[in-house]
From TrEMBL:
Taxonomic lineage of the native organism: Bacteria, Bacillati, Actinomycetota, Actinomycetes, Kitasatosporales
UniProt entry keywords in alphabetical sequence: Membrane, Transmembrane, Transmembrane helix
Record's protein name: LCP family protein
Ranges annotated as spanning the membrane: 125-145
Cell envelope-related transcriptional attenuator domain segment(s): 204-359
Region annotation (Disordered) ranges: 1-116, 440-490
Cited InterPro entries: LytR/CpsA/Psr_CW_biosynth, LytR_CpsA_psr
Compositionally biased region (Polar residues): 479-490
Stretches with biased composition (Gly residues): 28-42
Biased composition (Basic and acidic residues): 79-94, 451-468
The keyword Lipid biosynthesis is assigned to this record: no
Length: 490
């Protein structure tokens, strides 16, 4: 009988088996699916089999995944045990090959399953950390607030005195406008003030400024009141409980007689302007505020050497800090002609430069810069109950911080030498009455730079009506003064 020829060239003929015999268990007969011969030591796998690799790879059943390994048995005519072992090995190898991917998939799926948990944990820790930061910031902020708030001293005595005389006080005429009386006390009591003289148990207002803030918060006018101005001072309550008699005397005696309350009543009497609030700052408070903004720049035409004012600086552009700044605004005899008029002008220029620096450096918008200024201001500050909290001061500051420096004006009440004593001043009428009326009614006040005459009033502008209408018989008064935009070096 001729031998059967297979499709593969060079493949040995399959030996004849007994007629009608079934292939042994685990093997396949000729022509069945998955039949493969081996040539060159490699197993030929059927298309539906994941074929084995390597020399001598075992021929597996059709549904198996091919095994690997040298010396694998053929499906027919071999020892059944060897075939079974080969099939089992092939199955295991196939399972490993198949399950390897499954394990990888399972591992990948497991990682994905754990990812949401890790993300949730991270979010919890992030939320906890953020909460702690917020709580810490709130605690620090509260501490700063309480510290600044506790710095402020409330003048309860003045509030009680003013309430007792409420009926005689002028009524406010302008809606939302504010009139704040700023008092620079020359007291020698308190920390750091004794070096300026002996404490005689009394104090006078070294500087007095009535600050008018317009109702629309678009302008502010600071009107200086000379300490030597002769005015009518009402009967006031003294610190020991006794009362002074009403008298005609120089203005700064009012503060010595009865403190802020007596000064306020005196100002309201000769101006007719309702004073809404007051602040008293001593020497140390002024120095600390200047230091908090790292000094104020001024220009000197001549050097200054004043032992009484503790001031010695060369000519030219200078940056004055605490002690020097205080000496500069207090010096009188060693600068210029020694008059109080020049001293007031110097104070106004310095305050204008201070305002300009505070606004230009962004102090009011930067908490880290604002805190030292507020701390310095509040440590030596005495106010009425309406401004005795940090919130009140902050609200006031924020309401005026956007006023342009050219709209922050400084001027002095119109005055001239007192006829009975050239060392004293008296009001000039009708210029003084015109200025007081405009402030009282919250009307714009126009100031022009330059050295003015005694009346401090001119008619440099074309006449125009107060109401902005057509030209009439009443021109708008113009006063000599300066603005914060000008500074001292311009």
């Amino acid at each position: 009988m001729d031998a059967d020829v297979t499709d593969s060239a060079g493949t040995p003929a399959e030996p004849d088996g007994p007629a009608g015999d079934e292939p042994p268990t685990g093997t396949r007969g000729p022509g069945s699916t998955g039949e493969a011969g081996t040539g060159g030591g490699a197993a030929n796998a059927d298309a539906d089999r994941t074929g084995g690799t390597g020399a001598g790879t075992a021929n597996a059943n059709a549904d198996g995944t091919g095994g690997t390994g040298p010396g694998a048995a053929n499906a027919d005519g071999t020892d059944p045990d060897r075939v079974n072992r080969a099939n089992r090995d092939a199955d295991k190898t196939g399972q490993h090959a198949g399950t390897g991917t499954a394990k990888a998939d399972a591992h990948g799926t497991g990682a994905d399953a754990h990812t949401p948990n890790r993300r949730r944990n991270w979010l919890r820790w992030a939320a906890l950390g953020t909460s702690l930061v917020v709580l810490a910031a709130a605690a620090v902020g509260w501490w700063f607030y309480r510290k600044l708030d506790a710095n402020i001293t409330t003048d309860i005595t003045a509030a009680a005195e003013l309430e007792a005389y409420e009926k005689e006080r002028p009524k406010p005429l302008a809606h939302n406008a504010q009139n704040i009386l700023l008092l620079g006390s020359d007291t020698r009591s308190g920390e750091g003030n004794s070096k300026y003289g002996r404490d005689g148990g009394s104090q006078r207002a070294d500087t007095t400024i009535l600050l008018h803030i317009s109702g629309n918060r678009k302008s502010a006018t600071a009107m200086s009141i000379p300490r030597d101005l002769m005015v009518s001072i009402p009967s006031c309550r003294k610190p020991d409980g006794t009362r002074t008699k009403a008298q005609f005397a120089q203005f700064n005696w009012a503060f010595e007689f009865g403190g802020a309350a007596c000064t306020i009543r005196t100002v309201e009497r000769f101006t007719g302007i309702r004073v809404d609030h007051h602040m008293v700052v001593d020497f140390s408070g002024f120095k600390d505020m200047v230091n908090a903004v790292h000094g104020v720049e001024i220009c000197l035409k001549e050097p200054i050497d004043d032992a009484d004012a503790h001031l010695k600086v060369p000519r030219g552009k200078q940056t004055l800090r605490g002690e020097q700044a205080l000496g500069y605004v207090r010096a009188r005899k060693s600068i210029g002609n020694g008059s109080d008029t020049e001293r007031i002008q110097r104070q106004q220029q310095f305050l204008g430069a201070l305002v300009k620096k505070v606004q230009s450096n962004g102090v009011l918008l930067n908490p880290t810069r604002l805190f030292p200024v507020l701390d310095a201001a509040t440590k030596s500050l005495t106010t009425d109950p309406g401004l005795n909290s940090l919130k009140d001061l902050y609200d006031l500051t924020t309401s005026i911080r956007n006023i342009p420096t050219e709209k922050v004006q400084f001027l002095t009440v119109p005055r001239r030498e007192y006829r009975a004593d050239p060392n004293r001043d008296e009001l000039v009428e009708p210029a003084a009455a015109q200025l007081f009326k405009r402030l009282r009614e919250d009307k714009p006040v126009t100031v022009v730079p330059g050295k003015a005459d005694d009346e401090r009033t001119s008619r440099k502008e074309s006449p125009k009506r107060d109401d902005g209408g057509p030209t009439g018989s009443k021109p708008t008064p113009v006063f000599s003064g300066t603005t914060a935009a000008e500074g001292t070096c311009e």
